[in-house]
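[09:14] KT: can someone run the structure on this one? pasting the chain below
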Amino acid sequence: MKKTSYLILFLVVFFSLATSAQQINSPYSRFGLGLLHGENTHTRIMGMGGLAIGVADPTLINPGNAASYAVFDSTSFLFEIGLNSNITGMSTDFQSETSSYVGLTYIMFGFPVTKWWKMGLGMLPYSQIGYNVKIFIPVGNFSNVVNSIEGDGGLNQFFIGNAFKIGKDLRVGVDAAYLFGKSDRSSKIYFPDSLEIFGTKTLNRIKGGDFIFDYGIQYDIHINSGKTLTLGVIYSNRWNLNAKTDHLSYTFTGGFGDAVEHIKDTISYLPEEKGKIIIPQRAGAGATFRQNGIWMVGFDFEWQNWSNYTAFGKSDSLDNSYRIAVGGQFSPKHTSISPLRKRIIYRAGFRYYDSYLSIFKHPINEYGISFGLTFPMRRSRTTIDLGFEVGKRGTKVDGLIQETFFNMSLGFSIHESWFHKRKYQ
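[09:31] RB: done, structure tokens below
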């Protein structure tokens, strides 16, 4: 047990360092809280297009619906860890660019407290910010003006979930998640053709940390011959996230190309200003239909009221968003000595996300097609999971940027029996 405690502590510290080192590159992460992860973080869930609200699997820690923890085995301990890699190609009508990153995305634990009370806990990303854009503005025959905007950071979450089994078929759960993180945004205007004209730079840093709560319900309807219909509902009300911001504006010379930036004068400085970030209410429903141990199909619908989002009293002109996911999985009939191809679990799914962004009256939406595989280890309930997703975000209309992305996720799931009572002393 002592060695296990050291392992858990090491993994938590490693996760914190790894998530802080990740750097996405998407101009659309400039707005709101950045790019939201939602249910698509977990490797297996990614493979089914983000299907999560009606999923109840005793071998899966599913933070998409806290009620799902109640199906954990009463004698088992689950540990899951996942990594994600991303390749994104960004293009307009005139140019294109490619970026990539790799990072640890989640670490989670699931275990029983009693036969009717189970728990899940872990860390995973909530949102990410990462962009570096230069806008060139011609000014007659005098000089070009360059506006360079950059940003990085995001929010992570540490959650503790409790799920309770009420009767045979009803489950309820709640996740208490502590959101924490920071974002750095800067905007710099300068004149690259002149060393005598002062440029202007603005820096904004926001640090936040507070609790939010997500609630979930699942109900099983048994059809026949081992077939089950599971209905799920999730809800999270509006939360006020405590935050602080630092603001600094100054004039400078240099600071572009290989030139050193020389600060000339401070325009404004507002340190440690306290405020609130409004996380709006969220609701969703989903259903899965499954033949126990063989196949499962389902769908999700989720909505969030982002038009009520504000940060330090300022809105970001966001729209309400919704998400649709359709997916499933299949496992051929097999035994423990069957060849690997029959023991693999195969997944596929599709998702569509009507995001909270609208630029020049063009909705910035995204969609993804995904596939997944689970490889069970012989003589063990440990599995290796793979998830793949390809999709698009945005549009090229009116000079906007279209992103084509490829995500690959690698997950490890360790399922051990820790709670058997000894028959002999």
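[09:33] KT: thanks! Helices lie at 2-21, 43-47, 340-343.
[09:34] RB: yep, looked fine to me
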